[in-house]
Amino acid sequence: MLKKIGLTTTVPVEVLVTAGYSPVDLNNIFITSEDYLKYIDIAERDGFPKSLCAWIKGIYGACLENDIKEIVGVVEGDCSNTRALIEVLQLKGIKVYPFSFPHSHNLKDVEIEIRKFMNIFNVTEESVEQTRQRLNKLRELAKEIDELTYLENKVNGFENHIYQISLSDFNGNVDNFENSLKDAISEIKQRKPINRKVRLGYIGVPPMTGDIYEFVESLDAHFVYNEVQREFAFPRAITAKNIFEQYYDYTYPYNTTFRINELKKQIEERKIDAIIHYTQAFCYRAVEDIVLKKQLDIPILNIEGDKLNVLDARTKLRLEAFIDMLSDLKEAN
């Protein structure tokens, strides 16, 4: 039986798998739970403030409730509250291994951090590279599902989201997940294309409100791009020479300029009409909306989630008005 290790976000999972761990993305446990609010309640009962991102509280509750004894906490390059979160988890007796994506976004600095991580878990670069080659086979399958989404229009936005986000921890079992990806591809290829009027890109952190995908489809729109979920699936890993390059060429934890270059490329390649930028209440990443609107020459609607896992009436109204406007623009052209 492999030992479980919790993740606060995507980390060099190759190191953990090589060291004999079964990685568990705490975000995925939290948001897919039918009783997800109980995880937030656990955190608030333990003193976490109401004015703190629901994800941090959810991760905390998920960690305690699912008997996770060890976690990797990303202290640089992700949520600015993770440092405080892991201090509280340490008080609860949970063993925490810190990891950083250096703000410098310099290949040498990324290599230093990953080598530190390898040393903590006592694994060699060679053995980690073998694991990376194994995991890259699954990443290529996820990439195929992504291509079936925007090239053949056979995958809906929610499926695209789920299959790619699951690559943060491979659903805890690499072999089983590989089989489920292969089965999904076989089934998807038999489908007829989804033809909707408006092609949307979803950018920002994965949503608390999973029903956003179904809702936009009811408005004759289709998400053909999930930005961060795609980055979690490392679509460019196969071209990286080694693990250091792979985690250097990863837009999520680094500066907005690096991220914007990839966004521009995807907007053009996927023929995206507009962007929905999702941000989480009380999250510093909401400020990035200012930069994105300035740098991307495309209509952008910013929506904000908090504790609810369904869209509220106001957000639905804003999405409806935005997509209506885009439909009119397409017809006019």
UniProtKB/TrEMBL annotation:
InterPro entries: FldB/FldC_alpha/beta. The keyword Oxidoreductase does not apply. It holds the Pfam family HGD-D. Keywords: Coiled coil, Iron, Iron-sulfur, Metal-binding. Its cofactor is [4Fe-4S] cluster. Residues 121-148 form a coiled coil. The keyword Secreted does not apply. GO terms for molecular function: hydro-lyase activity; iron-sulfur cluster binding. PANTHER family: 2-HYDROXYACYL-COA DEHYDRATASE (PTHR30548:SF3), 2-HYDROXYGLUTARYL-COA DEHYDRATASE, D-COMPONENT-RELATED (PTHR30548). Belongs to the FldB/FldC dehydratase alpha/beta subunit family. This is Benzoyl-CoA reductase/2-hydroxyglutaryl-CoA dehydratase subunit BcrC/BadD/HgdB.
